[in-house]
Write a structure and sequence with these properties.
- The chain contains two helices and 52 strands.
- A five-stranded mixed β-sheet has the order 17-16-24-19-22, with no helix packed on it. Strands 1-6-3-4 form a four-stranded antiparallel β-sheet, with no helix packed on it.
- β37 and β38 form a beta hairpin.
- The model has no long low-confidence stretch (mean pLDDT 91).
Length: 724
Amino acid sequence: MDGLGLPGGPIGTNDTVELVVTGRGGVPAASVAAVVLNVTATGPTAPSFLTAWPTGEARPEASNVNFVPGQSVPNLVVAKVGTGGKVSIFNRFGTVDVVVDVAGYFPETDGFEPLIPARLLDTRPGTTTIDGRELPGNPIGAAGRFDLGVLGRGGVPASGVDAVVLNVAVTNPTSPSFITVWPAGQTRPVASNLNTAPGETRANLVIAKVGTDGKVSIFNLAGSVDVIVDVAGYFTTGGTFVPLQPARLLETRPGESVTPGGTNRGMPVGQGDELEFPVLGIGGVPLTGVSSVVLNVTAVGADAPSFLTVWPYGSQRPETSNLNMRGGGHTVPNLVIAKLGAGGKVSIYNLAGNPDVVVDVAGYFVEEPAAIRSVVADARGTCSIDSLGRVSCWGSNPQDEFAFQGLATPPSRFAPYPLGIFDDAVDVAIDWTHTCFLRSDGTVWCRGGGGVIPVLGDGQTDVRWIAIQVPGLDDVVDVETGYLNTCALRSVGTVHCWGAGFGAGTLATPTQIAGLSDIAEIEVADEYACARRSDGRVLCWGGMGSTGVLGDGSGTDSEAPRLVAGLTDATSISLGSLRGCAVRTNSQAACWGNSMLGNGTTGRSLTPVDVKDATTGEPAEEITEIAGGDDWACALRTDQNLYCWGSQSAATAGLAPSTSADTTQIAGPVHGLAPVTSISGGRFHACVTTTDHDIMCWGFNESGQVGDGTNQVQPTPTLVIDSP
């Protein structure tokens, strides 16, 4: 991932490697309690085991991955972070290559308490545990159950614990079988945590809800088997993790049962196949407020060496594995903590062969509340980004409606729903034909398309519901879309566009717009675009020139950017379908074009005219931002109120002050708003962010773009997202 962690050789007998985990792979550099690692042992030369523990602590008498020669064995490990942000990994015998993928982390304030691994159970005779308890001296027999006490042992408190993180290993099995772990005192679920085969030692991580008397139950189906259990941490009551009675979400074997709402595909996952399945609203997982789920994924009857990858549906498949298979009909499980994707779904990929796949859910993580950072409104839809980089949308968006197919209870598009695609978004640009996302690493990702114009930036016109990375862009600071166009502003001040080309012919891939340099801001409308230079000058290009939207005084179209006449001190710009506006350094504003320019008339102007105050008839002052739609606009002033103007029609939706006549100069303020920090305008609706980091919207609402849960006109500002 970053060129680190490449020792250049296997881990030898009794050798230890120290792995830096903080500040890498999305893990913060500080305030991390533990990391979630998928650890795979491959190419071992002797039967052995791996132990992972916090660097700087004494190595515990515990194991995380067990293996024999010829195997590639994965296991999920929740490891407490040690000295220097490191985790230590020890190999007992022979040599073995080790592959480690990071799947997540627990902040220090997350309700999870990592522990130095401690042994709680060992059924083999002559062994020991952390406290000398739970040493039955004989294996668990066929249809046998063992109730294991976990509270008050190995660092786990005696109370206030919802669930424990256990590494469960089986050895000396006499028959093919499986192990199920569940809260004591409850009915044993139709689920499995670990599958056994004679002559093999296997391990799997289990996150188990604590049951009656502080115990978890362990069941063995057939034969007899020794079981070893190490505790690695616990979740406190009321934290972000909610443990569940295990429930089966996915089965690919024909005729096998699943929990109500689960998926039975009825056929294996073939070579190179991807499948997705819904999670929200099934098996105890709620419909909303979930960030990720804990899944036990089992490959059954693998007929070829292969691996499975699990990732959020709607995102690009990562180059990692969660579960490795060696073929020969073996059955292999592994615990996976999976982030939910578009439509609350999870995707699974199989490299080779035709294994059956079984997925049980064991719990979920509550979505962390976060303040709203921005809101973007378009003709029929609206999206927001919170402070954690997560995107939510509402209104009409064909790309999201596709993701909801197959859900028993799809979310309403009339209210905000999480996209679940990226958690590092800094900007989103939405349009009826496509949606583009700017991520924190400066890359742009787009989805949608399907027409004759290549709107996704890769030269192709086929529809893509899963976002693709736009090639050649890795330092973007702003992205904007129009009906069939997209433009990106790079950190060096150049502008690159693709799509219909604003009259310059189709641009299949990002193409630098000649004549634009030192650009600080871009805006894109359906048929034209404008760019603001850092020196305050504004240039526009494209079609609709006869309406005056290019602002150069010519009234003609232009493929090349032209300077907006007389505008040399712009600090921000905004565009509507038929109007451009700029805020100036003196906090006054000017607009140009053919629709509601705010200058006291309803006529066209080919060059900028002053936006005037309806009370004084003089240029309006103290303006910090302007946004608007087809026949209305609003100015945000330094008093954090909105002052609007527009047509009688717009006024019926609360977007202009008067329903009896057109309002051609700014008036107001708009009532019912908390202090406003930003505004975004769709064609016929408006949304604002407030000082409380909330979102309020109002206007025409036929597609649910206001987000109030209905599709009825909302003429007064209504609270859509209430930030914590």
